[in-house]
Amino acid sequence: MDILFYIFVVFLMFCLLWRLLQIVWTWALVFLGLLRIVWLAVTFPFRCIFYGGAFLYGLYLEFFHRPKYRRYQFDGQTAGGGHSTQGSHENGGGFSGSSQTNNEEQQKTYQPPKDEPSQEERYLQILELSRSTLTRDNLKKNYRRLAKQYHPDKNPNNPAAEEKFKLLTEAYDYFSERV
Fold first, then answer.
1. 98 close to 111: Cβ distance less than 8 angstroms
2. Distance between CA atoms of 119 and 70, rounded to whole angstroms?
3. Mode of pairing for the β-strands spanning 110-111 and 73-74
């Protein structure tokens, strides 16, 4: 009988110890949560400055450092070499009869480039297809043929083949949704 009593007491002690560990763990998590809230509150202004600055820098890059492959580009400089307007001192001043021809030279117009193909046309060139031969079967056939030819496993240490394979996959993904 004494042995059963001691086993019961040991069992109760383990249960109490387990419950005590649960309470300590819960309070540790509460403390860590409060510590995180304090950390977020203290670092909030710095994070706003950092991420806001990164966002503004991204806008600056987007609008003032546009790459040359954009669809519309500025077609050239003005006659005065800057932001000169009709009748400025660089053009001889005044609104004379020749100001109309200067005005035509100075107008800032945006025109799409004539020598650059559109994205679809570039993808068709990559897949060696034309608009008239673009069908699901031809697309799949040409993609598989070219993918076998330019696959990185068949062309190890050839970055040009790897780039061509990436472009092929991109073009195939583009047309597989549209054809």
1. no
2. 11
3. antiparallel
Task: Note the helical H segments in the chain.
Answer: 2-64, 99-106, 119-126, 136-150, 159-176
Helical packing angle, 159-176 and 136-150, nearest 10°? 160
**Nearest in space to 138 (alpha carbons), one of 169, 99, 112, 175:** 175
For 21-79, the pLDDT digits (tens) are 999 999 999 999 999 999 988 888 888 888 888 888 887 777 777 655 544 444 444 44
CATH architecture of the domain 119-176 equals Orthogonal Bundle (1.10)
Q: What is the pTM of this model?
A: 0.38
CA–CA distance, 23 with 21 (Å, rounded to integer): 5
Residue ranges of the domains in the chain? 15-67, 119-176
Give the closest residue to 78 by CA, choosing from 70, 69, 63, 88.
88
Tokens 């597989």, located at residue: 176
Count of other CB atoms within 10 angstroms of residue 69: 9
Beta-bridge partner residues of 73: 111
The CA distances from residue 70 to 5, 65, 118, in Å, are: 85, 11, 11
What residue type is assigned to position 26 of the chain? T
Rounded average pLDDT over 100-124 = 67
